[in-house]
Amino acid sequence: MINEAYKKMLEGKSIIRVLSEYATARGKEIGYENVFDYSLGNPSVPCTKNYTDAVIRIHQEQDPVAVHGYSPSLGIESVRSTVAESLSRRFGVPYKTEHIFMTSGAAGAVAHAVRCVTKPGDEVLAFAPFFTEYTQYINQTGAVLKLVPANTVDFQINFEAFESMLNENVAAVLVNTPNNPSGVVYSAATLQRLADILRAKQEEYGHDIFLISDEPYREIVFAGVDAPYVSGFYDNSISCYSFSKSLSLPGERIGYLAVNPKATDADIIAVICGQISRGIGHNCPSSSVQLAMAEVIDETSDLSVYETNMNLLYDALTRIGFEVVKPGGTFYIFPKALEADANAFSMKAKKYDLILVPADNFGCPGYFRMAYCIDTEKVKRSIPVLEKFAREEYGMKF
């Protein structure tokens, strides 16, 4: 018999995917260039030439049995060492090879991290607005996700709500900075306060509370914005990273989990993750992708288009009259809808072929997300359409 829990999930299909599929279908009718699709966070810039060259060279010159064989359970050792060296040099945290576990993207890293530091019934706190898939990442481990309400003033942490929700059942706190969907980057002051609270609560409760940091947008940070390294603030921390955005490699599914060397059991957590993989089948990412990525570990694609697009949209949205916190990174912007029901707002936008994602599922009703990882030319053409939509549907004057 089919598992009823998974059948039930079919009723809650991702609104992002639903809207993306609608945009694709609509594009077949009127030409996709005429659909202003801000639904899906799929990188829009190519990977670096050096990465492509490394892949070609590895496939041409190295032993095909090794290149196409299974990688070790924890990842290729030389690659893990390269990741550790890069992180140590860039962020001043003394990682070693044994602290790195290679994963299939940041999703794979979070899946392992949560299982490693929680048991069924434990609570994991995350902060709204949040990436909607965290619900599945966490609840399917047997732990329970609890969502801290948003601070909609600046989308830093709502500390009053956070402290009221802390209790002895909390085993981990999950943060995402730069943040999907708000684009906000947590400040050093925010992270320091978070770390201080967690240290005090660990002592009060007499058990570890791990800080899991989901960081796929770590390299997409805009001019004048400081993006502190989360694990530099708190010992019991695990960094979950993906090269999907920095190198524009989402389809390659490559990332890693990095355990703070000062964390409890830091030297065996990666080994434990190897055992977790036996149960979830989320293991042994592509050997050739690991090897090629290691050759360009400190490179990024040309990410400048995202800041260009952000500025265009931020200026237009604020001029039209939207309330919006200026993003510090990522390729998302998170305005307040022009009516309380963001779903109704987004449905009205569809009539103008504007595909905007309502934020109820992000834990922030009344807001919507725009993923502006699209061509700048298309962003520019969308602005008059946004103006027309706001004027005709809501009587905005600007």
Reconstruct the topology from this structure:
Blueprint: H1 4-9, H2 15-30, E1 36-37, H3 49-61, H4 64-67, H5 77-91, E2 100-103, H6 105-117, E3 123-127, H7 134-139, E4 144-148, H8 159-165, E5 170-176, H9 188-205, E6 210-214, E7 237-242, E8 255-259, H10 266-280, H11 287-295, H12 304-320, E9 332-333, H13 342-350, E10 354-355, E11 357-358, E12 368-371, H14 376-394
Parallel strand pairs: 1-10, 3-4, 3-5, 5-6, 6-7
Antiparallel strand pairs: 2-8, 7-8, 9-12, 11-12
Helix pairs in contact: 3-11, 5-11, 6-10, 12-14
Keywords:
single chain; 398 residues; alpha/beta; Aspartate Aminotransferase, domain 1; Aspartate Aminotransferase, domain 2; 7-stranded mixed beta sheet; 3-stranded antiparallel beta sheet; 12% strand; globular
Can you describe what's shown?
This protein is α/β, with parallel strands linked by helices and 398 residues long. The chain folds into two domains: 4-47 and 302-394, Aspartate Aminotransferase, domain 1; 69-295, 3-Layer(aba) Sandwich (Aspartate Aminotransferase, domain 2), CATH 3.40.640.10. It has helices at residues 4-9, 15-30, 49-61, 64-67, 77-91, 105-117, 134-139, 159-165, 188-205, 266-280, 287-295, 304-320, 342-350, 376-394, and strands spanning 36-37, 100-103, 123-127, 144-148, 170-176, 210-214, 237-242, 255-259, 332-333, 354-355, 357-358, 368-371. The strands form three sheets. Strands 2-8-7-6-5-3-4 form a seven-stranded mixed beta sheet, sandwiched between helices. β3 (123-127), α7 (134-139) and β4 (144-148) form a beta-alpha-beta unit. α12 packs parallel to α14. The longest helix is centred in the C-terminal third of the chain and has 19 residues, at 376-394. The radius of gyration is 21 Å and the shape is globular. The chain starts with a helix and ends with a helix. The model has no long low-confidence stretch (mean pLDDT 95).
